[in-house]
Amino acid sequence: MSFVSVNIESATDSPVKLTRRALAKQRTRERVLSAARRLFSERGYEGATIRDIAQAAGMSTGAVFASFADKSELFDEILTADYEAICAQMVQAARSGASADEALLGLFGVAYAFHLEQLPLLRAGIAVSWTHSEAAERKSRSDLKHIFRLIAEVMQRGVDQGQLRGDIDLKLLAEITWDVYVANYRRAVYDGWTVEALLARLSDQLKIIFAAARA
Hints:
single chain; mainly alpha; Arc Repressor Mutant, subunit A; Tetracycline Repressor, domain 2; 2 domains; 10 helices; disordered N terminus
């Protein structure tokens, strides 16, 4: 799955007044992104062409390329927007849990609830993650460091509270936890699992992971 860099500190920038030209360009991007999101959800990544997206947005392919270098950049922009939309909620959930396992369930619960509302798009993202270029894979792994840092922050709380032993490799544990979280989406895609069912399974998985990390 291609996940993207997000600001987990939720910094707020001062609003910038856009010129008429900049505003028109922004509206064009929004139209393209809206059309692309719909087509990626309906047809998957491979099935949605730039020509189709341009037609759905009511513009030429040249207008699309004026805003995005290629389809890959357009798709990544959609994923970026999604994670920016839920980032603050994920951080809040991660930092609100009384224990590390509760914080992780809250963090991933936000993501499960969001993505189950648009499973076809999620499925397209997972498919792309297995076929993109080596450069795209390196970028994806770099972007994930932000999420892993948040998970590791929760794991450190587990160490401080005695849930996990002090010499545990937090980076590796965060990556293992992330892999388990992502793998569970197959249950939603193929078996129709709800958010509640996914969280119940993740809770059981975390119990095993934490038990091993205490040994």
